[in-house]
Amino acid sequence: MFNGTEMLKIFFYIWSLCLPTILKAQVDFERSNDAILGLLEFTEEAQKWRSDFRSKTNQIKLYMQQHDSKIQSGQYLNMQELAEYYVYKIHHPLNEIVEGKENFLLFDDFFEIQTQVPTNVTTAYRKQKLKYIMMREDRSRIKFKTVKVKKYSVNPFDEKGQLLMRSFKLQLAAKLLLVDNYMLALSGILDDTYLRRTLLWDLEVEHVDVKNTLWNTWKSFYHDYQNPRDLYQAHDIIAHVKHLESLTPFVHGKDKYFDALDELIDRSIIWKLAAERKDSFNFFKETSARMALMNARQRDQVGEIAEDVLYSGSKIFGNIAGSFYIGKGKLYNMTDDELDEMSKNARALDVMFDKTGFRLTDSFIPGHFTHAAVWSGTEEELKDLGVWDELPALYRRAQRNYNYKGPDFQTAIRSNHNIIEALRPGVQINTLRHFIDIDDIAFLRPKTCESEKSEFGTDGNPKCLTKAMKKRNLIEAFKQIGKEYDFNFDVNTRDRIVCSELVYRTFLDTNFDTEKTMGRHTIISDQIIPRADDPEDLMYPVLLIINGVRITDSVDEMQAVLKILKDENYVEFERRTGISSKY
Description:
The chain has 2 domains: 29-106 and 157-322, Up-down Bundle (Methane Monooxygenase Hydroxylase, Chain G, domain 1); 336-577, Alpha-Beta Complex (endopeptidase fold (from Nostoc punctiforme)), CATH 3.90.1720.10. It is 52% helix and 13% strand. It has helices spanning 4-66, 73-98, 159-190, 193-201, 208-224, 229-246, 256-267, 269-276, 283-293, 296-322, 336-345, 379-384, 391-402, 409-414, 432-435, 467-479, 499-506, 555-566, 570-577, and strands spanning 110-113, 120-129, 144-154, 351-355, 371-375, 417-423, 426-431, 440-446, 484-485, 496-497, 515-517, 520-522, 539-546, 549-550. Helix 1 packs parallel to helix 3 (159-190), helix 2 (73-98) runs antiparallel to helix 3 and helix 3 runs parallel beside helix 7 (256-267). The longest helix is centred in the N-terminal third of the chain and has 63 residues, at 4-66. 34% of the residues are buried.
């Protein structure tokens, strides 16, 4: 028998033997997570490029129709730049993922799914057909050679199996993205004989890599994907694994990264076609022909599919990236008394900005301020404006239209939920304490008209808000609660909404600047500032805290600082305020 000390020594000895394996598995999963996050970034870039490429292609074709097939030099240059961007920033990185250390999708090796034994990799042998030019007199001969390959026997329920499945799905998702890029963007140019010749063969010598990549992309689509057995085999493997996972309540290694890969794969248009028409020999060729020849309505439907793909990819990336942050915001530790004071000084329809320099998503959003919200006001204010009694009907509307699950709006207001904001889960009404994990905050207040007669400037924008206008705007703000977050950032869609679009939707009479990006009009928080950085504007700043430091109470000074921040002139900002612009 062992005494307690000896048992402890044995335990630590066994643990010391296991620890390297445990740590290696942890490192392997972390590397896998980094690779998946990287793929999500490439997906985001690819979808933005895809939309821009389609838009430029349509402009070129329209111009050619109107000018006897002439291509404007500026349009050609734009197309060439987009082609270069695709090859170097999207295609090559994605292709490196597909052709990684071990390219599972070539299926040169054996790859089987099983649950009887732990995952293992062994040596096997298979016959491989020799590729050669068959001579006329030797048509009947087919030559083979025996080659040594690997046999992957993958158990999806152990760590090694999970890592192999992650690698397999990572390569598959990257490959599907490449083929989707062709179907939804490149085909518009490369399937057109004239445009293909113009884009490919008129490129300068220094762009030979671009020309060769696009040429091989077009050629491989029609040559290699007439009967894409690799995708069929991949589909069988994924379906088998999903079936096994459905029978097991817990699968080691399944997390938000693993789920993100599954969603990327499932959202691929090519993958959906492969699943639906797996037995069709030439479905890729048929699909391409249909897309090239379909009528206007069919093209609209393809555009809708593409919009859905863009929305889904942005949603995946936004949700993953949004969960990455370092530390807490500079204002996170504000006391309850400080927050109470801030709340007391706020007024209904105040527009709120914030910046969270410690979050990953902050670096992907243009402009200084990266989030916008609307202050709903207190019960007293809402009663005075005639909004309070409208809230029960507005709440039922949110439940009926958007399946909203939050508390009723009157209860929410009474429990200090005063901030209407669009977050990744959807549009909500939250407390200031929930909101305050930030570095910067700004309150912009719309001016109140002295009478019920509204005043408008020469640009058609209101110079102040009447009581009736405030009521209408507030009701519109409450109407947004429950909507999904708009990962397409399109102000022309009403069913989904992004944070800055909440302000755009709320102030119905104000013409905010927008920017047309990827074929859609978007608005960012900084585009609201021009309505508050001049004494003649509708709004004026009442509170401005940057990097945890409060700017002076002078409205003129705050407006001057807002202009500097809008221009992202941080050298001038530091000189003028003495506040660091480093977060």
